Amino acid sequence: MQDFTSPQNEETVGLKTEELTINMGPQHPSTHGVLRLQIHSDGEVIRAAYPDIGYLHRCFEKHSESREYVQVIPFTDRMDYIAAMSQELGYVLAVEKLLGFEAPERAQGIRVIVCELQRIASHLLAVATYGLDMGGFAPFINAFRDREHVLRLFEEICGARLLYNYIRPGGVSRDLSPGVLDKIKDFVKYLKPCLDEFNELLTYNSIFVSRTTNVGIVTGEAAISYGFSGPNLRGSGIDVDIRRDAPYSGYDKYEFDVCVGLAERGTVGDCWNRYFVRVKEMYQSLRIISQAVEALPAGDAMGKVAKSPKPVGEIYMETECPRGNLGYHIVADGSKKPWRVKAKSPCFIATSSLDEMCRGMMIADVVSYLGSIDIVLGEVDR
Amino acid sequence: MNPIREYFQNIYDAVTSTYKGMRVTGRSFLKTQGFRKVRGGYDYGAGPVTISYPEIKDDIPSISRNRLFMHQDGCIACNQCAVICPVECITIESRKKSEDENPEARTPAEFGSKPVKLKLLRFDIDEALCCFCGLCTEVCPTECIVHTTEYEYSKFDRDNLIYDYLNFKDENPLPKG
Amino acid sequence: MSESKGQIATRTYHSNPVAPVPQVLGSAVPKSIDDVAAALRQKIGADSVVLVEKEHVGTPYVVVSPSHIVEILKFLRDDERFYCSNLNVVSAVDYPPRAEGTESLLKASNVIEVVYVVQSYVHRHHVMVKVRLDRSAPKVASVTGLFRAANWYERECFDMLGVHFEGHPNHKRILLPPDWVGHPLRKDYEFPEEYNGMKVPL
User: Fold this and answer.
1) Over its length of 382 residues, how does chain A's per-residue pLDDT go in tens digits?
2) Residues in Cβ contact with C162 at an 8 Å cutoff, skipping those fewer than 6 apart
3) Domains of chain C and CATH, by start
4) Residue from C188, C156, C169 nearest C91 by CA
5) Residues A315, C59: contact at Cβ < 8 Å?
6) CATH class of B68-164
7) Is residue A122 situated within a structural domain?
8) Number of domain units in chain A
9) Which residues form the domain of A364?
10) How far from chain centre, in Å, is Cα A238?
11) How far is the C-alpha of B1 from the C-alpha of B168, rounded, in Å?
């Protein structure tokens, strides 16, 4: 068969051809935000794809230099707005380490429950929009119905559906009202058959499998060099998870498996495996939530920390967010406001891999690759 | 693979995939016919999840953080809410009370009976800027600024979202709690 | 599916060498910052390590000389005692000059610090390496040849703080528009009144 990836011009096929420059513009339903890709393509095959970001840049780092530590927490929510609890937890754990403070056990348990619920909500959105990009509308609707239940649970827990401002230095801002734990247990029982149904609809569907297997293969070495983390790295076969390797907030008390891409379909490191790692992680999150709800001790939900903490020192701390390893580099000089807060965003790094990975793909495969690395432009641009 | 075998394999794959998808749709079609037993959404899977908003509205929890409301009687003009607000949407102006303005006044009992030393001249909240974080409600010493459950207050002009709580006139009835 | 489709889709284009994946997971021997400093002094040279800071609260770090940064990170990446194959972040911090006699709990003054954090998946340790650059003309060699992740991190440091990375393949602004003037995260940055005729909101 003819090889479409080598350049075709007058010598090879006898036709005068030119490279086409297309904008997969900032407004596009499949780029998961305002991402601009300048694509130079030879027909359908891409020769170069230059990502252009910065459309959602909101100067989070500059704002956080003029706000107190507690006032920065609503800003950290808004970076990756789909997984806001994990963003807050990373920042608050870094501040607590600088203060030398460990939150009470009940607060740690509540934090784990809330972060794993958030992981389920975030992965549901990721896999549902991926299915939508590939053309399937029913899995999207089913997953959003389930995500709606999670958002209602969050409203009962902390008062907000999407951007919470719930996790504070010292614990959590408000204890769980009575009855919420039973609702969480009901939800866990309800979700497992829904995930099985979702698998039937999307995961093994032959169109989805043929569009996503063997596309965008990132080998283990390349994934580490690119700086991938989280499900992207585990989809390439590397067995790393901060919750198991360097546990924080009481994760060492719970038993769960780390899900790695095992090539049930396709090859390790392709889009299908990255997607399936997310589906498997949702089952593990349900396990963690049931264990955390059983083991939640009585006690305070908030420890004794000053209203306006004044930490000193410098720290870099990473936590496992649904999209990868979110890191915070905080430089504190003993005053009420931080000197520097840098957020290392996993989606930023995943977007940087687009340039090299897209060469040689067809344009439809770019959509498949973008959906599988699961970027949210709020975190890319901060 | 043999092209003929591949051709029939493709047909088989397509038919089984379609059958599996339609089976899921068929199951949920049959399940959601019927009445919802319980309103409020926590009887998971009891019936259809779609409600005919705006005729029927879902109940939201009382701790839900929607539009702010400030009880004028309870404010002592301490400025804590304006200082803690991350986006600086609260504007407060006050001055010391003169002799004939009842300097020994206290806030009513439900607001903690705190002494009111300053006269409040202006208290505006720009709800378009508010990020609904709840920090102002946590630091208020008299708990006169609260989040209500009011979420249907869209306006045609952004300036109409600057609420003046000293002369509060809103077409919606006063929110509860 | 047919062979040709497999041929197109699996071809990946890597022109830079990649870091090796250590196969021996599980024999984790985390190293301390003193081990790192001793190994660097022995291998690279006594003048490569400027100081080791571990008394403060937080992550211990080692400050190295900017001229050796590429060798140092390559050594940390490939040596079997460290195997720091993952570059976590390249961050930069601005420390403006302090007036005479002012007290501060910050550890540096009148420099721009570029912070590299590398991590090992085998030995389960992080190493924080810093370089201190002259504030008026901050310049350091780029480590894009060692870690592909450094590409965009360094562009962001240039965009936000004005640090020049020599040898970077695509040394342009990344988050701000290409015709923006100034480097926002510097402490003496002044917000412009207008940008292309639009008022800049503060």
Assistant:
1) 455 556 656 666 677 778 889 898 888 888 888 899 999 988 888 888 899 999 999 989 999 999 999 999 999 999 999 999 999 999 999 999 999 989 999 999 999 999 999 999 999 999 999 999 998 898 999 899 889 889 989 999 999 999 999 999 999 999 998 888 988 998 898 888 889 888 888 888 888 988 898 888 888 888 888 889 999 999 988 888 889 888 998 899 999 988 888 888 888 889 999 999 999 999 999 999 999 999 999 988 888 888 889 999 999 999 999 999 999 999 998 899 999 999 999 999 999 998 888 888 888 889 999 999 989 999 999 8
2) C112, C138, C183, C186
3) 27-98+105-189 (3.30.460.80)
4) C156
5) yes
6) alpha beta
7) yes
8) 1
9) 60-216+293-381
10) 17
11) 77
Angle subtended at Cα C9 by Cα C7 and Cα C12, rounded to the nearest 5 degrees: 95
Using DSSP, state whether C191 is helix, strand or coil. coil
Report the greatest alpha carbon distance in chain B. Answer: 101
The answer to whether C121 and A325 have CB atoms below 8 angstroms apart is: no
Q: What's the rounded Cα separation, in Å, for the pair A212 and A136?
A: 13
The C111-119 sheet, strands edge to edge: C49-53, C61-64, C126-134, C111-119, C86-95
CB atoms within 10 A of CB B83: 15
Kindly determine whether residue A200 and residue B20, on different chains, have CB atoms separated by under 8 Å. yes
Q: Which amino acid, one-letter code, is at A185?
A: K
Q: What are the residue boundaries of the structural domains of chain B, listed by start?
A: 1-59, 68-164
pLDDT, tens digit, 9 for 90 and up, residues B48-98: 777 888 888 888 888 999 988 888 888 888 899 999 999 999 999 988 887
> Per the CB < 8 Å rule, is A159 touching B14?
no
Measured between CA atoms, the residue of chain B closest to residue A307 is B139
Please give the DSSP secondary-structure letter assigned to residue B4.
H
The per-residue DSSP string of A300-364 comes to: -SB----SS---EEEEEEEEEETTEEEEEEEEEESSSS-SEEEEE-HHHHHHHTHHHHTTT-BHH
> By CA distance, what is C91's nearest residue in A?
A342
C-chain residue closest to A346, CA distance: C88
Asked, for residue A87, whether it belongs to a domain, the answer is yes
Instruction: Mark yes or no for CB contact A183/B42 under 8 Å.
Output: yes
Return the CATH number at A123.
1.10.645.10
Residues in chain B closer than 8 A to A177 (CB atoms): 63
Give contacts of A70 with chain B, Cβ < 8 Å.
84, 135
